Structure formats: C-alpha cells, structure tokens
Amino acid sequence: MASARDFAAAAAAALAALVALADLRDLEGVEVMTASGSG
Fold it and tell me: Residue 29 to residues 5, 6, 16, 18, 36: CA-CA distances in angstroms?
C-alpha cells in the first residue's frame, strides 16, 4: 500500500501539473476543472 507521504507527493505533482497547464493555456475552463477535480 502507498504511504501517506507517497500519496502527498502524487497529489502535489498532480496539482503542480494542473497549475502549470492552467498557466500555460490561461483558460477559465481549466480553472473550473481544478476547482471540481478534487475527486
């Protein structure tokens, strides 16, 4: 099983990718995705 640290690292990487994508495209649609993509 993945440890809490592994999960946190994966979540941080995913969040960083979403932020980078939003910054790259600069679209409101991406912001909506990040807001509703918690699950």
Answer: 30, 29, 17, 12, 11
Q: What is the pLDDT along the chain (39 residues), one digit of tens a residue?
A: 779 999 999 999 999 998 888 787 776 555 555 555 554
Per-residue tokens: 37: 């993509």
Please give the DSSP secondary-structure letter assigned to residue 16.
H
pTM of the predicted model as reported, rounded to 2 decimal places: 0.52
Measured on CA atoms in the order 29, 25, 20, 1, is the torsion positive or negative?
positive
